[in-house]
UniProtKB/TrEMBL annotation:
Signal peptide: none annotated. It holds the Pfam family Cytochrom_C. PROSITE patterns: CYTC, PROKAR_LIPOPROTEIN. Residues 241-263 are annotated as: Disordered. Coiled coil: none annotated. Keywords: Electron transport, Heme, Iron, Metal-binding, Respiratory chain, Transport. It comes from Sandaracinobacteroides saxicola. The keyword Heme applies. Its cofactor is heme c. This is C-type cytochrome. GO terms for molecular function: electron transfer activity; heme binding; iron ion binding.
């Protein structure tokens, strides 16, 4: 797939709900949410997830569920190819919190997410993260993918590319279930979304968090066709555990053991 096609996918996803736009000021107490995970309230997080917000420039009010689905199952653009958003259900609390923080302080850029994240207190972030970790959307929908492309992606995923990349499965798990703390479960994510994210991280357009910086280094030497193949393989995966190996509201630290149920 040419760089022009990849760029087109990225533009569509920017319009749909992925990265793009101008940074916003950081929110207060950017790291306080981590200390609040131990007392986070998933029921309050569920209410926040469904809460509607009227954002500048948007015709209709939006909530997390508007784009990501009521159970965090994502949006695959089946009705509108511009309306694509990733699956969130079962993601690790630390990864979710760090991404919300990154949107709020402008490290990760997409205006609607920045606007929503910028409204959140540290307690809101903790409650949302715990709620998302407990969501169960069921299996991802089947996506139309070229078998040869999926097979090429499987090879890169399981074996890596000599001199360019280690196997993706080392961190994300053989089935894309997420094997270490800041490597999210990504099985069955929308194919265009994964293409756009891999391309952005390859070009170092998404940095500033441990996960993004690690991925930028991991995929920085892959060719465009390898990036697309890996995205196809990820989209083909269906096995995805929901929940976490530790209690969802347990405090998280960078030194804790790998989490096999989420990020």
């Amino acid at each position: 797939m040419s760089r022009r096609i990849i760029a087109t996918v990225a533009i569509l996803l920017t319009l749909a709900g992925c990265d793009g736009g101008a940074p916003r000021p950081p929110f207060q107490d950017p790291d306080g949410w981590q200390a609040k995970l131990a007392t986070a309230d998933p029921a309050r997080g569920a209410a926040l997830y469904a809460q509607m917000h009227r954002l500048s420039g948007e015709r209709e009010a939006l909530s997390c569920a508007t784009c990501h689905g009521p159970q965090g199952g994502g949006n695959y653009g089946l009705e509108n190819p511009k309306h694509i958003a990733p699956r969130l259900a079962g993601l690790n609390t630390v990864y979710v919190g760090e991404q919300l923080r990154a949107y709020a302080n402008g490290t990760r850029v997409f205006p609607p997410m920045q606007a929503l994240a910028g409204k959140l207190s540290s307690q809101d972030v903790a409650d949302l993260a715990v709620n998302v970790a407990q969501l169960d959307p069921g299996p991802a929908p089947l996506q139309t993918l070229t078998p040869a492309l999926v097979e090429r992606g499987r090879v890169v995923w399981t074996e890596g590319v000599v001199g360019a990349a280690t196997p993706c499965a080392q961190c994300h798990g053989k089935a894309g279930e997420g094997k270490v703390l800041r490597s999210p479960a990504i099985a069955g994510e929308p194919f265009p979304y994964i293409v756009a994210q891999l391309t952005t991280m390859h070009d170092r357009g998404r940095t500033g968090t441990t996960a993004a910086d690690t991925m930028s280094a991991a995929v920085g030497r892959l060719r465009d066709d390898d990036l697309v193949a890996v995205a196809a393989y990820v989209a083909s995966l269906q096995a995805r555990e929901v929940g976490e190996s530790r209690p969802a509201n347990a405090p998280a630290a960078p030194t804790e053991k790998p989490n096999r149920g989420g990020v």
